[in-house]
Design brief:
The chain has helices at residues 17-31, 38-56, 62-70. The chain is an all-alpha fold. Helix 2 (38-56) runs antiparallel to helix 3.
Length: 86
């Protein structure tokens, strides 16, 4: 049997997305000389999930999703971030 396409479900199946997300967020904050607390990671996760849900339901566009995520949650979803210099 020959396959034209092979699909992989990477999120949390082949790839530990939760761990990678926390690592990426922490690394980005370290580059900016800011501390990334577990509370911040949890807040980002919650906001990110809500934004993706809104995108999947068609209530925001892909551009709005990107903008809101880049704005650190200061967009359609309420979130509180506290950053302090390291």
């Amino acid at each position: 049997m020959r396959y034209n396409v092979v699909l992989f479900d990477a999120d949390e199946t082949l790839f530990d997305y939760t761990k990678a997300e926390a690592h990426a967020l922490t690394s980005a904050f370290q580059e900016m000389k800011l501390e990334c607390t577990p509370l911040l990671v949890d807040s980002y996760r919650r906001i990110n999930q809500e934004l993706w849900k809104a995108f999947e339901q068609g209530s925001i566009t892909q551009q709005q999703l990107r903008t809101a995520r880049a704005a650190g949650g200061r967009a359609p979803v309420v979130g509180s971030y506290r950053c302090r210099s390291v």
